[in-house]
Amino acid sequence: MIQLDLNHAFLKEDVKAYQDQVRAIDEALQNGTCKGNDFIGWLNWANNYDKEEFSRIKEVAAKVRENTEVFVVCGIGGSYLGARAAIEMMNGLYGDNKPEIIYMGNTFSSTYISQVMNHIKDKEVTVNVISKSGTTTETALAFRILKQFMEEKYGEDAKNRIIATTDKARGTLKALADKEGYETFVIPDDIGGRFSVITPVGLLPIAVAGIDIDALMKGLHEGMGEYGDADLEKNPAYRYAVARRILQNQGYDVELLVNYEPQMQMVAEWWKQLFGESEGKDGKGILPDSVCFSTDLHSLGQFVQEGKKVLFETNLYVETPMIDLTFPNDEANEDGMNYLAGKSVDWANKMAAKGTLQAHEETGGVPNILLTMPGMTSYDFGNMCMFFFKAIAMTTLMNDSNPFNQPGVEVYKKNMFKLLGKE
Ligand code: PA5
């Protein structure tokens, strides 16, 4: 369970003053009368997910792990970020990752696409193309290149190495997958892209990466209870949601998600999409940004400490690291570092976090929200998903906006299609 500490947040209003509003919104969310109510399938997904499909995900993943050196996830936005966030958080950045998981369909960069194709050309490859609409241009462009490559490399067998995750009935990708005979998995109608990491969109790549998806679903399921109460005192996700609204009332328009683990950086990217796309509409919302400390204390740290007071920090602390390390002794001590000899490196990381909180809070006057997760396991990931899903749904509905649509994303597409000559 994620622990929340608001003692460093400088809130000028009492969180409890929002109890009635929170209760009313929670009721609307639970009984499906809130804004965007056709996209709340994630709420009870941990109970309602298709168990047969879940078993098939595990079977397909086991087969892929046997015959594949590189697994290419081809998708963008909600059809990409969650899987990458989960895999990097749980396996680390330089783990013994077999198969290697790489990402395409998330950019038009010709250099990136060419280098990925060059990287995979002599390896055993499986492709997972993921798109709910089936028409997202970045993904479709990359998939055509991958499909041709797979057909040249594997001939008839290509169809056994391409897996499509898409809508159950509609769209170009579904039609193509049926025609070619690809294995397919379904993106549920009532779960939007940025909430879809808990569906086959995330679960297949995560299982291919060797991660226990049963534990992920268990964490999600427990999260339904832990973050399910309308009572603010019993629900840290809703308290966090209210604290964000109060801080915005106090003039803070930027939220910096702070982590101290480089393997959490894609979690921050996933969170930015979840929060930014859900809340940033109707001329409202808090701009979500992120930093990885202590690395970024040597870049953005200066701004946080002494720059314009536009932001608050939300620290996502991890209690137990994936691996700890003891700092070695050195007889000569020429670098003067023996004061750390025998100490845990994770302890040093936590002391850096403590010192930073003090500096930003006491001297910098920056409000800090503290979130602590127990570890970076599959269970923790599933649990964290429910925490952030509930928090962003509540905080956006408090703004009287629809948390589950993204009308603004379409504007660039129209212009781009015109420029690309699409009919
Ligand atoms: O949150 C969202 O809905 C978006 O980020 C989509 O996931 C993204 O645009 C990809 O869409 P699709 O899965 O239709 O290719």
UniProtKB/TrEMBL annotation:
The keyword Protein biosynthesis does not apply. GO terms for cellular component: cytosol. GO terms for biological process: gluconeogenesis; glucose 6-phosphate metabolic process; glycolytic process. It is found in: Cytoplasm. GO terms for molecular function: carbohydrate derivative binding; glucose-6-phosphate isomerase activity; monosaccharide binding. Its main location: cytoplasm. Residues 60-226 form the SIS domain. Pathway: Carbohydrate biosynthesis; gluconeogenesis; Carbohydrate degradation; glycolysis; D-glyceraldehyde 3-phosphate and glycerone phosphate from D-glucose: step 2/4. Pfam families: PGI. Keywords: Cytoplasm, Gluconeogenesis, Glycolysis, Isomerase. The keyword Electron transport does not apply. The active site is at E277 (proton donor), K413. Coiled coil: none annotated. It catalyses: alpha-D-glucose 6-phosphate = beta-D-fructose 6-phosphate. PANTHER family: GLUCOSE-6-PHOSPHATE ISOMERASE. Belongs to the GPI family. Catalyzes the reversible isomerization of glucose-6-phosphate to fructose-6-phosphate. This is Glucose-6-phosphate isomerase. The gene is pgi.
